[in-house]
Design a protein that fits this description.
The chain is of the alpha+beta class. It is built from twelve helices and twelve strands. The strands form four sheets. Strands 2-1-12-11-10 form a five-stranded antiparallel sheet, with helices on both faces. Helix 2 packs antiparallel against helix 12 and helix 7 packs across helix 8. The relative contact order is 0.16.
Length: about 375
């Protein structure tokens, strides 16, 4: 061992020398840890290899965002958002989120709960005194976690317009869904005793937000969520009232030909699926959820608490276990990793937002075509990160 420098040739110097050596060793250990961490993060080429083979430039496509610990590690667009204009998909292209919109509806309700204008135990009869008697047993909590038992408005429309093609059926609004519910005499099951996914419930919640706030639903989302978070291009689309910038149009392939299938009889409802957004804006939404920008962790907790169901009720989640749903989010873990997620399907669109909360991983896949499975693609990405 070489002799100590003169500066360190006494007791005090030896202590300094020891501290210096310890500091150097610590730096090396940290460097090694960071290198190991970086090795576990997949390269962009690995992520691109999942998506690039699926889409050509002149087809409808998809947009992909991957974030780790609040940092974007992958952001790509593939294909065209509008075949007529030949416009490419990029991070500013706005897709119909379909049922991923429900997380915004749930946030709107929780904001009004925080304001003291609503309570989760308020019933439909409390909010709408003219609602039939069966509404006295349905709480806002039931609507949020899909335990209301409300009739499916899609089924009621099918009965009303039996024999007609979907092109012949007029679009229904949230107000129209509420009117349909007011014509019913009861629910499919006693509220709170079973779980059944319900678009009707979220359409009714949009009307609840309007009643409690005095604002139109799209205006409430804009003022209380999108503007504060600077999600300037995100909106709940209303034909003739607002316009989607850089709009991605939905498509379906038929006999090798791409058809623009962007609107259906259920595309005008807002509470269950009417929000349009982009990767750039959803990055801001992801940040807000991570930082508790709109609501504190405590105020948000009910949305991330799985619904409690009777022991004799059996329903399977995506992973095969008991259903775990909060308010606008599925909460079942993936391979032991905590997760909040939602997918969306509507005519011409498929979407998914997956947040692995304990791992700091967010994966968003938005597609304006129906032959891709964003949920399966998101899981392929997740498997590259999760160990």
């Amino acid at each position: 061992m070489p002799p100590l420098p003169r500066l360190f040739q006494n007791d005090r110097g030896i202590r300094r020398w020891s501290l210096l050596v310890a500091y150097v060793l610590l730096l090396r250990a940290c460097s090694s840890a960071l290198e190991a961490y970086g090795a576990q993060r997949p390269a962009a080429q690995q992520l691109a290899a999942i998506f690039a083979p699926l889409v050509s430039r002149h087809e409808p496509g998809l947009a992909v965002l991957v974030r780790l610990n609040g940092k974007t590690v992958f952001k790509r667009g593939y294909g065209s958002r509008d075949l007529r204009a030949g416009a490419p998909i990029n991070a500013r292209s706005n897709f119909r989120l379909a049922s991923c919109s429900k997380q915004f509806t749930a946030m709107a309700v929780l904001l009004l709960v925080h304001d003291g204008k609503l309570r989760l135990e308020d019933t439909l009869a409390d909010v709408f005194p003219e609602f039939p008697a069966y509404g006295r047993a349905i709480t806002l909590r039931n609507l949020l976690n899909h335990t209301s038992g409300l009739a499916a408005y899609e089924d009621l429309m099918d009965k009303t317009y039996a024999g007609k093609s979907w092109q012949e059926i007029p679009q229904i609004s949230d107000a129209g869904v509420l009117e349909l519910m007011e014509k019913q005499t009861g629910t499919k099951f006693s509220p709170g005793t079973a779980w059944e996914y319900s678009n009707s419930g979220y359409c009714v919640l949009a009307k609840v937000v309007e009643k409690a706030s005095g604002l139109g639903f799209s205006d409430f989302l804009r003022r209380r969520i999108f503007v504060p978070l600077k999600m300037h291009d995100t909106l709940a689309y209303e034909y003739g009232k607002n316009q989607v910038k850089a709009r991605a149009y939905g498509h379906t392939q038929d006999a090798g030909t791409w058809l623009e299938t962007d609107q259906s009889p259920t595309s005008a409802t807002l509470g269950d699926g009417g929000v349009y957004s982009s990767l750039d804006d959803l990055r801001k939404w992801d940040d807000a959820l991570r930082r508790h920008t709109l609501l504190s962790e405590a105020a948000m907790r009910p949305a991330l608490t799985p619904v409690a169901l009777p022991q004799d009720f059996h329903s399977s989640s995506e992973g095969g276990g008991p259903v775990k749903y909060g308010f606008g989010w599925f909460l079942d873990p993936y391979r032991g990793h905590a997760r909040m997620w939602h997918s969306g399907e509507s005519i011409g669109f498929r979407t998914v937002i997956e947040r692995f909360t304990s791992d700091g991983l967010t994966i968003i896949v938005l597609a304006n075509r129906t032959d891709l499975d964003p949920s399966a693609l998101a899981r392929k990405v997740a498997e590259l990160f999760l160990h």
